[in-house]
Specification:
By secondary structure, this protein is mostly helical. The protein has a domain at 62-274. The protein is built from 14 helices and 4 strands. The strands form 2 sheets. It has a two-stranded antiparallel ribbon with strand order 1-4. The chain has a two-stranded antiparallel sheet with strand order 2-3. It starts with a helix and ends with a helix. It is a multi-pass membrane protein. It is found in: Cell inner membrane. The chain crosses the membrane at residues 12-33, 45-64, 71-89, 95-120, 127-153, 165-186, 217-238, 244-262, 267-284, 290-312.
């Protein structure tokens, strides 16, 4: 046992997550055997993880500042509806496809800027600000689309979430590239250090000469842009856009961030931790699905795990 512990990384959170992966694999190998370890199951996990992963990174990024972004799902659906409407209105026209992607990104920037201004300039608490924008955007999504499904996207869009490169889902490669870029941002740049400082002590960060309002607005813009990326993958996977897609994922993005080692009060958390937490959650969801466990029971389980983990964290502090 001591030899195994020495091999594992020094970070306690990463150690715990790697141990959880081993336990989950052992548990499902006993209960499901080859059904869990089939190529099809792992392909399914690798295909589903990127969408939730981009949303979780967007959530975790805001939590590093001591905030939260409850509007990420509504933002993703708004971007997908806008892009889908433009694409479907002008089928087979590459220029309008490009314009649709730009329009979706600009909408994400607008939403992120709105959240950032409410929080950093006006002083609204992050949970109330993003709850308000979530409700506003979700209502507009239904109102403007009449709850209809927009479908029929070109092969390029469909490739993003369903294509493969040397047998590896392209969406997974895209997610890993984004996760690496976010790691570089947080660990190797001045902005990243400012984000951690802001989450640790906002007042001290402001007194040190850092423009905390600019940092917060930038963080919420990046969070919204990650929602835009998730919107593209959702459009590809479902070959459609709808106002109500992914509503049950909000809890899971928070859970992935917290299990990944992000302190809900801000100031601490690593990208690698969030990625490993996502792997654990996706494996658990896949295994429970193969066992025939109800999706509602699975969601209840996620809620219980989140409450337990936060309670244990608060008890340690």
């Amino acid at each position: 046992m001591n030899a195994i512990i020495k091999i594992l990384p020094g970070d306690r959170i990463i150690r715990l997550q790697l141990l959880m992966i081993v336990i989950v694999l052992a548990l499902f190998s006993l209960t499901l055997g080859g059904r869990f370890f089939s190529a099809g199951n792992f392909q399914s996990i690798a295909t589903q993880l990127p969408v939730l992963g981009l949303l979780a990174l967007g959530m975790g990024l805001t939590m590093l500042t001591g905030g939260i972004n409850l509007s990420i799902i509504a933002s993703a659906n708004a971007c997908s509806l806008l892009m889908g409407a433009i694409i479907v209105a002008h089928p087979g026209q590459p220029l309008f496809l490009l314009l649709a992607l730009i329009a979706g990104a600009l909408l994400a920037v607008l939403i992120g800027t709105l959240n950032g201004l409410l929080i950093a300039v006006i002083g609204v608490s992050p949970i109330l600000a993003t709850l308000g924008t979530m409700t506003l955007i979700a209502g507009l999504n239904i109102l403007l689309s009449n709850g209809a499904v927009i479908s029929g996207f070109p092969p390029l869009i469909q490739f993003l979430g369903n294509g493969e490169v040397f047998g590896v889902p392209f969406a997974l490669l895209l997610f890993l590239l984004v996760a690496f870029a976010l790691w570089v941002l947080l660990e190797q740049t001045t902005l990243g250090r400012s984000i951690y400082l802001l989450g640790s002590n906002e007042q001290a960060t402001r007194f040190s000469g850092i423009n905390t309002a600019r940092v917060q607005i930038t963080v919420y813009i990046f969070s919204a842009l990650l929602s835009w990326g998730a919107a593209l993958l959702m459009m590809s996977m479902f070959n459609s856009a709808k106002a109500g897609y992914g509503e049950s994922w909000l809890l899971v993005t928070i859970l992935a961030s917290v299990l990944g080692g992000v302190n809900p009060d801000g100031g601490f958390g690593r990208v690698i931790g969030m990625v490993l937490a996502l792997i654990v959650l996706q494996m658990l969801e896949s295994g429970l699905n193969l066992l025939g466990v109800s999706s509602y029971l699975t969601m209840a389980l996620w809620g219980g795990v989140l409450i337990l983990f936060i309670a244990l964290q608060n008890r340690r502090t």
